[in-house]
Design goal:
about 325 residues; 2 domains; binds coenzyme A; alpha+beta; 12 strands; Aminopeptidase; 9 helices
Amino acid sequence: MDVQPIDPRDDRAFADWFAVVDATQRDLWPGEPGWLAVELRARALAEGGDERVELLVAADDTGRVIGAARCGAPLRDNTHLVSSELWVHPAHRRRGAGRALLTTVERRALADGRTVSLIEHDEPAGADPAGRVFARAHGYECAQVDRRRDLAVPADPARLVRLEEDCLPRAAGYRIVTWRDRCPDEYVDDRALLGRRISTDMPLGDLAVEEEDWDAARVRRREAQSAAADRSSIVAGAVDGAGRLVAVTDIQLPNGAPEKAYQWDTVVLGEHRGHRLGTLVKIANLRLLAEVSPATTSVATWNAEDNRYMVAVNEALGFTVVGSGLEWQKHL
Ligand SMILES: CC(C)(COP(=O)(O)OP(=O)(O)OC[C@H]1O[C@@H](n2cnc3c(N)ncnc32)[C@H](O)[C@@H]1OP(=O)(O)O)[C@@H](O)C(=O)NCCC(=O)NCCS
């Protein structure tokens, strides 16, 4: 098995890499678009110095590409780790491609001074546990279990109104704001603080990660990356009496396959918790999503299983479990 890095700008090499990713994700979640080529390419090419991304392929003796990996090395914080995803084409499993990829990922990480390797993968309910058996066989320990929950949208308007009525009495003094794609300038520093906080406020299991270093420029870089990936960001926030943004929730909408949207960050600053702001921003954002994207039929969200509050909010909104996301860790 031959493992090599590829240049994401090379059309042919990227197409071979993506074909494996696409076949694997369609096998895992039949009927779903999954990551689109434009999105993964934009992530690999993103500039700005937040993360260095490497794409690797594993080819068999005939030169056919049967395995793929994406390795992300944070550059601004968490410089001790590398975080990877591995995919082996469903028709070519148990031939050593996964092992060859992971061995190369670890060797390159060590050469780069990284001491912790993380790998993550999805496991639909009832699916083959190959990913977990593979990770354990290579000395990884499960550091975090997320549950994936989906919600059919548009959400029942009456359900949203009832929930909102329950929440509003607790949220006096706050107002809800929404935007698409670009955070208003007046909130961009607050958005950066929220990005910093979410990186360590969410339950992290046994993951050896540290706080991420966010500022307004990084918020703008992330927005530019979403645009380059042909994604829209649908965002709702809560503003306190002093005019500060103290809560935010962000849904990512792939413009090339809008039927499925993805819940990203949701965070309420610690000192503003207990006011039902997490629920209220999500209600506002589901309404905004329905307004701007009638083609969207489902939203997926991932939460640590011990993230009791966020899970309760999602269940109140009607999200139901469809599988898990597992994060594995190894000290190199
Ligand atoms: C997990 C995955 C990457 C493994 O790829 P692979 O090329 O089949 O793995 P390898 O052939 O290199 O297997 C190496 C070892 O992992 C273990 N393993 C892998 N798949 C297994 C399975 N289905 N059942 C039991 N053991 C398995 C075995 O110990 C195997 O060694 P062996 O074949 O000598 O017994 C592949 O199944 C896949 O792409 N799954 C979907 C995506 C995913 O879960 N990726 C993240 C993995 S952490």
